[in-house]
């Protein structure tokens, strides 16, 4: 008898290679969406909708547009069932999304049950590049959430802690047990909300800050003077003294503000400068996905909203 069992078989299966663990607990989904605080004018971007547990709730909440970014074509096929004109499913890897396109001009909110194997990289990019972001809510591995919210001189404090807190205020809202997922992960998860800081309070030279954090936390137990001397940056020791930071301190004891002041001073002195350009990728061809609101351009796929927001060739642009 072709009913519930056959329907379940056709549903997307979690792929270990993609770090997928589908959220199925309705109460937890409702709490996550409520934490996002959707408003009528919000553009909402969901990363990895999977089987659509969060998506279905988001579609019933106030919003202007809902963009779904999914790497797995089988999961994206689940989203084609939506008849809502404001929902746009797009097949692409969130790691290749140019988050700089989420810029000031529209209120953006981002949500997602992030794959554990890319959560740190994704959040690193999102908080630092999305100037139009006004709120984000993510499900991440509990340890990763602790690292993002950690304070100086704690076990979890590191480069990720400083970086995230330089751009946003992280708050671990609540933990989620493995039983809320299919398949259940081996670790506990946490729902993390991020409230971006005003632009004026964010790092003036993020690339310099990133290089500084990479250098300092490679050897977190070493004294700062030794780290800089070994890297051929002895001039940084003088900068430490100027800023009132003892050269004998270790990286793990410096605050986010300390690192920002150091990066600004280093940039002014012409130290630790460098460029890193994101390389966008073309969208893949969609299989088994509703293409009614997708149009082909030069053999590639372009997703476009009615008001002009589009994602051609793997990039998001606003017209």
TrEMBL record:
SMART domains: rADc. One of its GO terms (molecular function) is 16S rRNA (adenine(1518)-N(6)/adenine(1519)-N(6))-dimethyltransferase activity. Its EC number is 2.1.1.182. Keywords: Cytoplasm, Methyltransferase, RNA-binding, rRNA processing, S-adenosyl-L-methionine, Transferase. It comes from Candidatus Desulfovibrio trichonymphae. Transmembrane segments: none annotated. It catalyses: adenosine(1518)/adenosine(1519) in 16S rRNA + 4 S-adenosyl-L-methionine = N(6)-dimethyladenosine(1518)/N(6)-dimethyladenosine(1519) in 16S rRNA + 4 S-adenosyl-L-homocysteine + 4 H(+). Belongs to the class I-like SAM-binding methyltransferase superfamily. rRNA adenine N(6)-methyltransferase family. RsmA subfamily. The keyword Methyltransferase applies. It is found in: Cytoplasm. SUPFAM superfamilies: S-adenosyl-L-methionine-dependent methyltransferases. GO terms for cellular component: cytosol. This is Ribosomal RNA small subunit methyltransferase A.
């Amino acid at each position: 008898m072709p009913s519930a069992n056959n329907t379940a078989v056709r549903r997307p299966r979690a792929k270990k290679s993609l770090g997928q663990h589908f959220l199925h607990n309705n109460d937890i989904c409702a709490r996550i969406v409520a934490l996002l605080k959707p408003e009528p004018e919000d553009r909402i971007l969901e990363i990895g909708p999977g089987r659509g547990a969060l998506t279905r709730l988001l579609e019933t909440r106030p919003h202007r547009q809902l963009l779904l970014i999914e790497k797995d074509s089988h999961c994206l096929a689940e989203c084609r069932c939506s008849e809502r004109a404001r929902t746009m499913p797009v097949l692409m890897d969130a790691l290749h999304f140019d988050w700089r396109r989420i810029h000031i001009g529209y209120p953006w909110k981002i949500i997602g049950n992030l794959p554990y194997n890319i959560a740190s990289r994704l959040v690193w990019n999102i908080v630092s590049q999305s100037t139009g972001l006004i709120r984000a809510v993510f499900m991440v591995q509990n340890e990763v959430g602790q690292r993002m919210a950690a304070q100086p001189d704690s076990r979890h404090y590191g480069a990720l802690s400083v970086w995230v807190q330089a751009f946003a205020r992280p708050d671990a809202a609540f933990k989620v047990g493995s039983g809320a997922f299919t398949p259940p992960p081996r670790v506990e998860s946490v729902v993390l909300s991020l409230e971006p800081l005003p632009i004026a309070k964010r790092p003036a030279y993020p690339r310099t800050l990133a290089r500084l954090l990479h250098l300092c936390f490679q050897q977190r137990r070493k004294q700062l003077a030794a780290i800089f001397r070994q890297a051929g940056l002895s001039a940084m020791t003088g900068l430490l003294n100027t800023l009132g930071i003892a050269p004998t301190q270790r990286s793990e004891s410096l605050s986010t503000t300390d690192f920002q002041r150091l990066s600004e001073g280093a940039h002014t002195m012409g130290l630790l400068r460098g460029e890193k350009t994101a390389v966008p990728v073309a969208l893949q061809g969609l299989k088994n996905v509703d293409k009614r609101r997708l149009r082909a351009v030069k053999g590639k796929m372009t997703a476009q909203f009615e008001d002009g927001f589009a994602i051609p060739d793997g990039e998001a642009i606003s017209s």
